[in-house]
Amino acid sequence: GYEMFLLSLIEHTFRLSPALLDRPLKDAIKEELGSIFLDKVIKDLGLCAAIYDLRSIQGGFVVPGEGAPTYTVKFRMLVFCPFVGEIIDARLKESTKDGLRLTLDFFEDIYVPLAFLPTPNHYERDPNPEDGVLWGWDYEEGSSYPIEWSDEIRFKVHSINFPPLPLR
Protein backbone atom coordinates (compact mmCIF):
# COMPACT_ATOMS: atom_id res chain seq x y z
CA GLY A 1 0.00 0.00 0.00
CA TYR A 2 0.87 3.65 -0.21
CA GLU A 3 -0.29 4.61 3.28
CA MET A 4 3.32 5.45 4.10
CA PHE A 5 3.03 8.61 1.95
CA LEU A 6 1.02 11.74 2.62
CA LEU A 7 0.42 14.91 0.68
CA SER A 8 1.35 18.00 2.71
CA LEU A 9 0.55 21.62 1.93
CA ILE A 10 3.59 23.79 2.62
CA GLU A 11 4.28 27.51 2.32
CA HIS A 12 7.86 28.61 1.81
CA THR A 13 9.57 31.91 1.00
CA PHE A 14 12.87 31.73 -0.88
CA ARG A 15 15.16 33.52 -3.29
CA LEU A 16 15.05 32.02 -6.78
CA SER A 17 18.55 31.25 -8.07
CA PRO A 18 19.55 33.58 -10.91
CA ALA A 19 20.74 30.52 -12.86
CA LEU A 20 17.09 29.42 -13.18
CA LEU A 21 15.68 32.72 -14.44
CA ASP A 22 15.84 31.70 -18.11
CA ARG A 23 13.41 28.81 -17.48
CA PRO A 24 9.59 28.98 -17.34
CA LEU A 25 8.70 30.29 -13.86
CA LYS A 26 6.82 27.19 -12.64
CA ASP A 27 9.63 24.87 -13.76
CA ALA A 28 12.26 27.09 -12.14
CA ILE A 29 10.32 27.24 -8.86
CA LYS A 30 9.78 23.45 -8.80
CA GLU A 31 13.49 22.89 -9.40
CA GLU A 32 14.47 25.32 -6.63
CA LEU A 33 11.96 23.77 -4.20
CA GLY A 34 13.35 20.35 -5.10
CA SER A 35 16.90 21.43 -4.29
CA ILE A 36 15.70 22.84 -0.95
CA PHE A 37 13.41 20.02 0.20
CA LEU A 38 13.88 16.72 -1.65
CA ASP A 39 15.60 13.92 0.29
CA LYS A 40 15.51 16.03 3.44
CA VAL A 41 13.52 15.49 6.62
CA ILE A 42 10.99 17.97 7.98
CA LYS A 43 10.70 17.48 11.72
CA ASP A 44 7.43 15.81 12.77
CA LEU A 45 6.45 15.36 9.11
CA GLY A 46 8.81 12.97 7.34
CA LEU A 47 11.14 12.60 4.38
CA CYS A 48 10.35 14.85 1.41
CA ALA A 49 9.95 12.58 -1.62
CA ALA A 50 8.52 14.75 -4.45
CA ILE A 51 7.12 18.19 -5.24
CA TYR A 52 3.54 17.30 -6.24
CA ASP A 53 2.15 20.63 -7.48
CA LEU A 54 2.25 24.40 -7.01
CA ARG A 55 -0.89 25.94 -5.47
CA SER A 56 0.06 29.64 -5.48
CA ILE A 57 3.02 31.85 -6.34
CA GLN A 58 3.37 35.32 -4.85
CA GLY A 59 6.13 37.88 -4.95
CA GLY A 60 8.79 37.98 -7.59
CA PHE A 61 10.20 41.18 -6.15
CA VAL A 62 13.94 41.80 -5.95
CA VAL A 63 15.22 42.87 -2.55
CA PRO A 64 17.87 45.60 -2.93
CA GLY A 65 21.34 44.03 -2.91
CA GLU A 66 20.02 40.50 -3.51
CA GLY A 67 20.10 40.35 -7.32
CA ALA A 68 17.38 37.68 -7.57
CA PRO A 69 13.60 37.59 -7.07
CA THR A 70 12.02 36.35 -3.84
CA TYR A 71 8.85 34.26 -3.99
CA THR A 72 6.39 32.90 -1.46
CA VAL A 73 4.99 29.64 -2.77
CA LYS A 74 2.28 27.33 -1.49
CA PHE A 75 2.83 23.84 -2.81
CA ARG A 76 1.97 20.24 -2.10
CA MET A 77 4.72 17.79 -1.42
CA LEU A 78 4.66 14.00 -1.24
CA VAL A 79 6.15 13.01 2.12
CA PHE A 80 7.35 9.57 3.22
CA CYS A 81 5.84 9.19 6.66
CA PRO A 82 5.15 5.60 7.74
CA PHE A 83 3.13 5.03 10.91
CA VAL A 84 3.89 2.76 13.83
CA GLY A 85 2.27 -0.61 13.20
CA GLU A 86 2.31 -0.24 9.40
CA ILE A 87 3.39 -3.31 7.40
CA ILE A 88 5.89 -2.51 4.62
CA ASP A 89 7.79 -4.63 2.08
CA ALA A 90 11.49 -3.87 1.60
CA ARG A 91 14.67 -5.52 0.36
CA LEU A 92 17.80 -6.47 2.25
CA LYS A 93 20.52 -3.80 2.10
CA GLU A 94 22.93 -4.95 4.81
CA SER A 95 23.21 -7.89 7.18
CA THR A 96 25.45 -7.74 10.27
CA LYS A 97 25.70 -9.42 13.66
CA ASP A 98 23.54 -6.56 15.03
CA GLY A 99 20.64 -7.20 12.64
CA LEU A 100 19.39 -6.13 9.22
CA ARG A 101 19.28 -2.88 7.28
CA LEU A 102 16.52 -2.69 4.67
CA THR A 103 15.90 -0.49 1.63
CA LEU A 104 12.85 0.85 -0.19
CA ASP A 105 15.20 2.12 -2.96
CA PHE A 106 14.41 5.77 -2.19
CA PHE A 107 14.96 5.25 1.56
CA GLU A 108 17.69 3.03 2.95
CA ASP A 109 17.67 3.61 6.70
CA ILE A 110 15.34 0.91 7.96
CA TYR A 111 16.94 -1.07 10.75
CA VAL A 112 15.77 -4.40 12.15
CA PRO A 113 17.78 -4.99 15.33
CA LEU A 114 18.64 -8.51 16.44
CA ALA A 115 15.89 -8.46 19.09
CA PHE A 116 13.24 -8.11 16.35
CA LEU A 117 14.44 -10.93 14.10
CA PRO A 118 12.34 -14.13 14.14
CA THR A 119 13.55 -16.58 16.78
CA PRO A 120 15.16 -18.98 17.05
CA ASN A 121 17.74 -17.78 14.59
CA HIS A 122 21.40 -18.10 13.72
CA TYR A 123 23.93 -16.46 11.45
CA GLU A 124 26.89 -17.53 9.37
CA ARG A 125 29.76 -15.36 8.19
CA ASP A 126 29.31 -13.97 4.70
CA PRO A 127 32.66 -13.28 3.00
CA ASN A 128 31.03 -10.62 0.81
CA PRO A 129 30.91 -7.99 2.29
CA GLU A 130 33.86 -8.50 4.59
CA ASP A 131 32.04 -8.01 7.92
CA GLY A 132 28.68 -9.33 6.73
CA VAL A 133 26.65 -12.26 7.96
CA LEU A 134 23.79 -14.34 6.58
CA TRP A 135 20.87 -14.75 8.98
CA GLY A 136 18.70 -17.82 9.11
CA TRP A 137 15.38 -18.42 10.86
CA ASP A 138 15.23 -21.86 12.51
CA TYR A 139 11.47 -22.42 12.23
CA GLU A 140 11.42 -26.10 13.24
CA GLU A 141 13.84 -28.74 14.46
CA GLY A 142 16.51 -29.20 11.80
CA SER A 143 14.90 -26.76 9.31
CA SER A 144 16.21 -23.29 8.59
CA TYR A 145 15.04 -20.52 6.29
CA PRO A 146 17.98 -18.34 5.17
CA ILE A 147 17.44 -14.61 4.61
CA GLU A 148 18.84 -14.14 1.11
CA TRP A 149 20.02 -10.89 -0.52
CA SER A 150 17.27 -11.16 -3.15
CA ASP A 151 14.45 -11.68 -0.62
CA GLU A 152 11.61 -9.24 -0.17
CA ILE A 153 11.23 -8.71 3.56
CA ARG A 154 7.92 -7.73 5.10
CA PHE A 155 8.31 -5.82 8.35
CA LYS A 156 6.15 -3.99 10.85
CA VAL A 157 7.15 -0.45 11.82
CA HIS A 158 8.01 -0.45 15.52
CA SER A 159 9.29 3.12 15.91
CA ILE A 160 10.17 6.10 13.73
CA ASN A 161 13.15 8.37 14.21
CA PHE A 162 13.93 10.79 11.41
CA PRO A 163 17.04 12.78 12.34
CA PRO A 164 16.34 16.41 11.42
CA LEU A 165 18.36 17.79 8.51
CA PRO A 166 18.69 21.57 8.28
CA LEU A 167 17.01 23.19 5.30
CA ARG A 168 19.16 25.76 3.57
Automatic annotation (TrEMBL):
Keyword Cytoplasm: no
Domain RNA polymerase Rpb7-like N-terminal: 13-67
InterPro entries registered for this protein in UniProt: NA-bd_OB-fold, RNA_pol_III_Rbc25, RNA_pol_Rpb7-like_N_sf, Rpb7-like, Rpb7-like_N
Keyword flag Transcription: yes
GO BP of this protein: transcription initiation at RNA polymerase III promoter
Domain called RNA polymerase III subunit Rpc25: residue spans: 86-163
Coiled coil ranges: none
Gene Ontology CC terms: RNA polymerase III complex
Compartments (UniProt record): Nucleus
Superkingdom assignment: Eukaryota
Keyword vocabulary terms for this entry: DNA-directed RNA polymerase, Nucleus, Transcription
Job description of the protein: DNA-dependent RNA polymerase which catalyzes the transcription of DNA into RNA using the four ribonucleoside triphosphates as substrates.
Family: Belongs to the eukaryotic RPB7/RPC8 RNA polymerase subunit family.
Protein name as it appears in the record: DNA-directed RNA polymerase subunit
Originating organism: Genlisea aurea
